User: Fold ImmA/IrrE family metallo-endopeptidase from Bifidobacterium miconis.
Amino acid sequence: MTHQGKGAGTWEVRVVITSQLPADWQGAYDSEENVILMADNLTPIQYACVLAHEMSHAKHGDKGCHADKWTERRADIEAARMLIRLDDYKRAEQVCDDEVWIAHELDVMPWVVRAFREWLHDSGL
Assistant:
């Protein structure tokens, strides 16, 4: 997978679907091999959300699995910003402010909605 960053050139990372991850893991970024490992039992929505999260780790060259809470928070927020358009979020929130309902409406996981809300709060939006 090649990603074109905003004004920053490109970077590449390989994505491998595997059954070899620990049972409670959905994905991981291996910085030594520059590979994102994705569990083979994910739904399409889980896959998109986890892949976006792991792409953030790859983009920043994060080392180690389950890094500190700030690194994980950054990855969650960047994933949320990749997957949710502000206008779509605003429309959904006008109907119902329940994060599970919004997640269902936007085809993301509830943790992605929580991260998007954190970004909105931090940004003053």
